[in-house]
């Protein structure tokens, strides 16, 4: 299993539970987990997968390496089932609506940092097997049939500034992934949004090119500078109201006008959502009560579950002001 590419595993019946467990065990081996951590990872993913079958009629497990601090594993279970009717009780050991021992969410919560979103359209359960909940996170997933995602994202911090990049390599597959990953490697601290895109444009000249957007966020003042080229969409959500950020036409590494930056307010409690065109537009966080307060990775996973086009790589990055 490639450590840099999230794995997506369908779990539609009991036969899908064991492959999910083996996948996380292999990933834990690759990362050098000791036997205790490996065993906990296996239990968490087994419980997530079992719950998908027992309560939701199936769903998907996403396994991702998180390298923010060291190397840990994030496991996400996504389904379109009836949701969890009583979240408070469901976290307690011994409570079950599916005929099992009722240890699923309780065990997951003890062995990981867990967060979830549930409603009539299904549930997303995140288990972070190490590490803290960051103020920004995202998912970049390959389209079906590809082993590498042509979307990539990254961030750097310098002083009171955090700079976020999302890149979508032209097309899909290995060549698109090479372009997107080149863009992320060129992300450097200390550059404003325009300078960062100009630098990335030069680095992408030998590649097939990419769409890309940079958001430079002053965490102290709440000011956000944004510059985008191509089909990256970005939205700031403030108390349920949305504001779309402006990107310019072109392809980084090929035909592109000089990047232009725009200034926005990004106050505490607001969300910044950036995504590639592998995600359909038209999403509305107001349709998911409580979602803006969830772990950013839960928000990204919910949007991918409900708005993924399915014929392209897809990526969503979420930052909380």
UniProtKB/TrEMBL annotation:
SMART domains: PP2C_SIG. It comes from Solirubrobacter deserti. PANTHER family: PHOSPHOSERINE PHOSPHATASE RSBX (PTHR35801). InterPro entries: HATPase_C_sf, HATPase_dom, PPM-type-like_dom_sf, PPM-type_phosphatase-like_dom, Ptase_RsbX. Pfam families: HATPase_c_2, SpoIIE. SUPFAM superfamilies: ATPase domain of HSP90 chaperone/DNA topoisomerase II/histidine kinase, PP2C-like. Keywords: ATP-binding, Nucleotide-binding. GO terms for molecular function: ATP binding. The keyword Ligase does not apply. Residues 133-321 form the PPM-type phosphatase domain. This is ATP-binding protein.
């Amino acid at each position: 299993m490639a450590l840099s590419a999230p794995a997506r595993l369908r779990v539609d019946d009991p036969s899908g539970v064991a492959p999910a467990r083996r996948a996380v065990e292999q990933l834990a081996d690759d990362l050098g987990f000791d036997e205790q951590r490996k065993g906990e990872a296996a239990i968490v993913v087994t419980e997530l997968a079992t719950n998908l079958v027992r309560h939701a009629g199936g769903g998907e497990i996403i396994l991702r390496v998180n390298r923010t601090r060291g190397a840990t594993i994030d496991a996400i279970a996504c389904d379109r089932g009836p949701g969890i009717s009583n979240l408070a009780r469901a976290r307690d050991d011994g409570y079950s609506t599916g005929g099992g021992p009722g240890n699923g969410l309780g065990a997951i919560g003890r062995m990981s940092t867990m967060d979830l979103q549930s409603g009539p359209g299904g549930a997303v359960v995140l288990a972070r097997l190490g590490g803290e909940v960051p103020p920004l996170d995202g998912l970049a997933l390959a389209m079906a049939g590809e082993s590498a995602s042509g979307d990539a994202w990254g961030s750097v911090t310098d002083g009171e500034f955090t700079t976020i990049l999302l890149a979508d390599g032209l097309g899909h597959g290995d060549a698109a992934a090479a372009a997107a990953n080149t863009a992320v490697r060129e992300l450097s601290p200390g550059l404003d949004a325009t300078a960062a895109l100009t630098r990335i444009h030069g680095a992408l000249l030998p590649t097939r090119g990419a769409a890309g957007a940079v958001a430079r966020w002053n965490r102290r003042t709440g000011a956000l500078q944004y510059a985008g080229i191509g089909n990256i969409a970005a939205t700031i959500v403030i108390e349920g109201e949305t504001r779309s950020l402006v990107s310019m036409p072109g392809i980084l590494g090929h035909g592109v006008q000089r990047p232009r930056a725009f200034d926005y307010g990004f106050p505490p409690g607001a969300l910044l959502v950036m995504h590639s065109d592998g995600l359909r537009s038209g999403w509305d966080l107001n349709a998911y009560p409580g979602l803006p307060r969830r772990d950013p990775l839960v928000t990204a996973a919910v949007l991918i579950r409900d708005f993924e086009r399915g014929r392209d790589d897809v990526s969503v990055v979420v930052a909380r002001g």
